[in-house]
Amino acid sequence: MKTTVGKIFVCVLLLVTTLACASLFSACSESHYFITLHDGDEAFTTVLTDEEGYVTLPTPEKQGYVFENWYYDSNLTQTYSPTDKFTEASDLYCKFVGNEYIITLDVNGGNVPETTTVTVRSGEDYTHIPIPTREYYKFIGWEYDGQIVDAGQPFTFASDVVLTATWKPVERIITYDSNGGVLLDENGNEVIGNLVSQTFVYGESRTPYSARKDGLTFIGWVTEDGKEIFTDLWISDESVTAIATYA
């Protein structure tokens, strides 16, 4: 009989203990909430509120950026405040602001319409950097460490940088029309064909072709509207037809 009473007492005690633990767990579950922290689309950690629903949040770090604040939405429009109280599991999104850096522009013989220093933030692109000009040269792009910088790519450096303008000299393609005569190359040799092209690159020395026509003296080359071509080759169009003139 005593054994039976003892067993009943133990069972009752276990039941009371189980109910108490369940009640305690339920109370904890109801007053503590998981807050998931995101950087953009990536969730990187989870924190737990205290019993009153408040939470202590970490200050995240990101190279080249300064942490600004936490937000309730991924569009970063609803600001979180440390006095906010949570009543359910929630998500928070961090916002970073890029550090400011100075880009110094080495125009490499060219010119820019404004300043040669530009302020940029981490994550911004390069589209606001001015385009330089240089007489008789084409601008290829801004170069850093031997590579052309893509203007649409974000600034990822964690320091001030110098960008150098790269250039390509303009080219003029001259197509010769012997105008009934015979073309002669740079060495005075006859050239087969009537319409033959020659490419001139600014800054490089090259002798234009000449022409010969029986009974006449070669005078020079003119455009279709009668302008002399080689008076100033570099103010003409990139491609031009040179017509031989004789007297």
Overview of the structural elements:
There is one protein chain. This protein has 247 residues and is mainly beta. The chain folds into three domains: 2-98, Listeria-Bacteroides repeat domain (Immunoglobulin-like), CATH 2.60.40.4270; 101-169, Immunoglobulin-like (Sandwich), CATH 2.60.40; 171-246, no CATH class. The chain contains one helix and 16 strands. It is rod-shaped, with a radius of gyration of 39 Å. The N and C termini lie far apart (144 Å).
In whole angstroms, how far apart are the ends?
144 Å
- Globular, elongated, flat, extended or rod-shaped: what is the shape? rod-shaped
The count of helical stretches stands at: 1
CATH architecture heading of the largest domain:
Sandwich
Largest sheet: 5 strands, mixed
Q: Name the CATH superfamily classification of the largest domain.
A: Listeria-Bacteroides repeat domain
Order of helices and strands: HEEEEEEEEEEEEEEEE
Which stretches are poorly predicted, pLDDT < 50 over at least 5 residues?
1-29
Number of spatially distinct domains: 3
> What percentage of the residues does DSSP assign to strands (E)?
35-45%
Number of strands: 16
Rounded average pLDDT: 85
CATH class membership of the largest domain: Mainly Beta
**CATH topology assignment of the largest domain:** Immunoglobulin-like
Structural class: mainly beta
Largest sheet, spatial ordering of strands: 6-5-9-7-8
The rounded Rg comes to 39 Å
Helical percentage:
10-25%
